[in-house]
Amino acid sequence: MIPNITKGERMAGLLVYLAGPGRANEHTDPHLVAGSGPIMAWHNDDQLNRDAALSIARELDRAKEVLGVEIRGGHVWHCSLSLRAEEGDLTDEKWAEIATEFMDEMGFTEASGKAPVAWVAVRHGHSTAGNDHIHIAASMVREDGTKWSGHLDYKRAQDAARALEKKHGLEQLNPVYAMRGLRPGEREAAQRRGAEEPERRSLARKVRACATAALDEAEFVRRVRRTGALIRPRYAAGRDDVVVGYSSAERPRSKGLRPVWFGGGHLAKDLTLPRLRAAWPDSPEHASAAVGEWGAAARGRRPVAVGREVHEPDPQLWEQYSDEVARLREALRSVPLEDHGTWAQVAREASGAFAAWSTATEQTPGPLAAAADELSKTAQLRRYPVRPLRTVGPSARGASLVLAAAAMGGTGTTAEAIMLRQLLNVAKAVHDMHKASDDLRRARQLSDVVRHQLSQVAAALPPVPAGTHAVDGEAAEAVRASTAGQAPGRPAGSVLPPRYEQARVHAAESRGGATGPDIER
Predict the structure, then answer these.
(1) Residue range 2-168, CATH number
(2) Residues in domain MobA/VirD2-like nuclease (predicted)?
(3) What is the average pLDDT across 14-22?
(4) Which residue has the higher pLDDT, 456 or 249?
(5) How many contiguous H segments (helices) and E segments (strands) does the chain have?
(6) Maximum Cα–Cα distance for the chain, whole Å?
(7) Given pLDDT bands bounded at 50, 70 and 90, which one contains residue 29?
(8) Which long-range contacts link 220-226 to residues 24+ away (Cβ below 8 Å)?
(9) Nearest-angstrom CA–CA distance, 77 and 50
């Protein structure tokens, strides 16, 4: 559940907007689901119109107007609470319960031990992205004229949302991991260009696959070019021998179309050049070789050198790297849940292995691509360690090297079947980490990929010989979100209009975040 807070001065403008048609006529059946007792007594769940919205706004503003209280930056507090479209819809009763408990936690109600404020929660259908949500409008002036404190309200709202997710069995959002989502209209624009999927997503897989399989930066540039993607460097100001970033694009499918370029950071947070360089050797020789390959790529010339990317890997490497992935799975048993840097790096390597396999064998995005995309979400941290993390011990990077050379079509090989089993064990370890961290949303998504996607790959591969480590049975189980028992409801408070009497001592001026633009826009 995602809270989004804005503040302003025009309560009437906000309520009229919430009860109106919306920017794209997306508002349907606007009505109240919860609010202060007196307001709910006069305004039930009937569909709101402009007159009702203005009447409610006057009630929300009454304490401010009667007691003459002014709040610098505005007294209107607006917060939307939204679910992902994939979560489906809640009932009005459930939203009412969540809204009331949220306002309790935020200190707006009698539960704070102070005079309450006037507030309402409005539900008006789905957003343009299909998300079920509500809007909470509240005054920051209490019934006794004291001021509700907005100090750290953004953080408090996030903490309250995490607690309510767990209590009500909603998908739990982990504040540690992040992912670059698609922009509105990006999927439709890619379809108009004839692309199978948005270029941002396909490029992220190719770049991650090549970065994981490459031993150094120069090899990375050559591997990306071999996938058919375009890549170009971003030089330091006034230099042509210092590369500080890059951008990549899919080659246009038709003449006359221009490539759509994405910087590494716009593909994913873990695909910026500084993040990728953390896994490669850093020496003058390697830097010089990389600059040469970047220059060739920028000019559309042939690669300067030829490396491992053009050679078929030794068949013995399949067994060697399968064993290394198996050792990695065992090593993960001792990694603490709070070691987010290590888990992100392991997920990045496993995602890169599946991405390399997909790039080599899937003509259109399939189960391997889905597995790569899902693991890549754990590979991205909202905040990375100050010092780059270098893995010590077993790694899944070698798996990317051999899987990048997997043959297109056919039924696959026994070596691929064994490698899949070992990578599934690593995915299972990442799944277990999310589950133990109460990040049930991510755990469920990983489990679904194994059950519905990778099971198809396993079925098409030869049987694994006896004695080979098998996948834990739980790896294919869908993880159900735990649902907490519902606590008995508390009284909604008096439905009588409040008596606005000035408190003897005013609270300190609100120290909330910066005021945003006009709230109704």
Answers:
(1) 3.30.930
(2) 72-170
(3) 89
(4) 249
(5) 18, 8
(6) 84
(7) confident
(8) 220/276, 220/280, 221/290, 221/293, 221/294, 221/297, 221/303, 222/293, 222/303, 222/305, 222/307, 222/309, 223/309, 223/404, 224/248, 225/297, 225/303, 226/309
(9) 20
> Looking at residues 287-303, what average pLDDT do you find?
96
Report percent pLDDT > 90 for the chain: 55
DSSP collapsed to 3 states, 323-383 = HHHHHHHHHHHHCCCCCHHHHHHHHHHHHHHHHHHHHHHCCCCCHHHHHHHHHHHHCCECC
pLDDT confidence of residue 450? 87
Q: What is the pLDDT of residues 49-84, one digit of tens each?
A: 899 999 999 999 999 999 999 998 899 999 999 887
**DSSP of 42-87, one letter per residue?**
HS-SSPP-HHHHHHHHHHHHHHHHHHT---TT-SEEEEEEE--GGG
Per-residue tokens: 224: 């990306």
Pair 134, 162: CB distance under 8 Å: no
pLDDT at residue 517, as a whole number: 34
How do residues 302-332 score in pLDDT, each as one tens digit?
Answer: 999 999 998 888 888 999 999 999 999 999 9
pTM of the predicted model, to two decimals? 0.66
- Residue-by-residue DSSP string for 236-260: PTT-SS-EEEEEEEPPPSSTTPPP-
How far apart CA 278 and CA 280 sit, in angstroms, is 6
1, 79 contact by CB (below 8 A): no
| Contact indicator for 347, 376 with CB cutoff of 8 Å | yes
Domain ranges of the chain: 2-168, 186-476
